[in-house]
Amino acid sequence: MPYSDAEIDCGQWIIAGVLFSFASPFTKQYKTSSMPNTNFPYKAEDLSAFAVTFGTFIISLKNGQIVHHEPKDEEKFRQWLIENNVRYLSFSN
Fold it and tell me: What 3 state SS string does the chain have?
């Protein structure tokens, strides 16, 4: 069975078409998926951190660029960011 990059994390190997997984304290799972059903053009692995104000997400990319996004479903987009381990920066007074 073929596997895509999004299905294989750094704790897995494919040998002779068989998927092997191993546990290590040094491995970390990386998701390479884009946010489904939205016009957000970045993959989770490109994102460093985010904050939200008045429905607008302010997102820091790993290349240093800052982008803004206003998703139709704010909660779903926030959940996708959190599931992909993008750091949340809260505003405090």
Answer: CCCCHHHCCCCEEEECCEEEECCCCCCCCCCCCECCCCCCCCEHHHEEEEEEECCEEEEEECCCCEEEECCCCHHHHHHHHHHCCCEECCCCC
* Per-residue tokens: 46: 């490109």
Report all structural domains of the chain as residue ranges with CATH numbers, in order of start. 1-30 (no CATH), 33-93 (3.30.720.210)
For the chain, give the mean pLDDT: 75
pTM here is 0.61
Is the model's pLDDT at 17 over the cut of 80?
Answer: no
